[in-house]
Write the structure tokens for this entry.
Amino acid sequence: MNILVLNCGSSSLKFQIIQTDAELAKCDSDCRLAKGLIERIGGESTISLQVIGKESVKDALPLPDHHVALQYILKWIVAPETQIPGITSLKDIHAVGHRILNGGEKFINTMIITDEVYHGIEECIDLAPLHNPANLKGVAAAREAFGPDVPNVAVFDTAFHATMPEESYLYAIPYEWYQKYKLRRYGAHGTSHRFVTLRYQQIAGKSSAETNIITMHLGNGCSSCAVKHGVSYDTSMGLSPLEGMVMGTRSGDIDPAVLTFLSHKEPMSMDDFDTLLNKKSGLLGISGFTNDMRDLEDAAEKQNKRAILAINLFVHRIKKYLGAYLAEMNGADAIVFTGGIGENSSYIRQHVCANLEQLGIEIDDKLNVGTIRGKEGTISSSKSKIKVYVIPTNEELLIARDTLYCVMEEELVK
């Protein structure tokens, strides 16, 4: 089965085509046939498309909306010069899998997107106003492009965290606010945390019941997850992806009184505060010049004080969550780094794990530096009681797997 995986942002559309079959346990990243990214949808869009194993095709032209962007991608997919193995027409795409950020408490499993499910996702927009509308644009465009015969499947980022106990997901605010509005911690990056958890089980030969690990997805967005007996027990992101660790442009945890204080000092609306905390804070806000960890590391080597401060804050917040989760779970068997920074930055991994010997964590500097993106491995020393892994995430592959299983189950029901 050839599955088109779509991940739509507010002004972007990322995709992969993944070929898979019933024996998904044997499937890995080599199942990818093609991938691409369109950014700045609604203006002069930048386009990068690639058949795996070939040179990327790059372009720039105005694409007004997600519907037109998807049409551009589909036209490229079936163009004679593209030559994606096994694909000559859109009939060779058998299903479309969509990343949906927040399914609320209603959607805790992968679902075929019927009209009812579509409207249910719309009802969750209040919980993810920046993400769900963009996700739904991709769904609408795909349903229109492929028609009713090609199933569209929703894979929810929040679903993995649906196993959290009340003490993990509730906020200490009047309980009726949860009852009325479902105000609670939902988490995010669930597909990534689930992928690396499953991969850890394969590497370590562990069952779900034996899996007690802490996963850290570190990228422009960052989240940590306490995985207890194979399921999410606690996570750092909350009602939205703003809560938790310091991120590229997001503040992470902040005293709500800061906003009250600023409201008396600056002429700012709630929308201004939202923009401040989501787009102008984090590594960018502290450094004053970038949210890119690579640039910060280069600047830190040159003794740029603000870059050093941004990195120190970033590491400090990660350690706070790491320590909290070790306490919550009474220890862990392993720590897993993933995401763009987690997979690539030996510098950040080294500093996160530094001076944690009393907690049973010690990394091998040679193994840490030798681990690069696309190469999973253990970076803990032989003395470390808690193993430390780098496992590259592959959310698209997991979405493809979920999509296939969901379609197969639907066929069995019929």
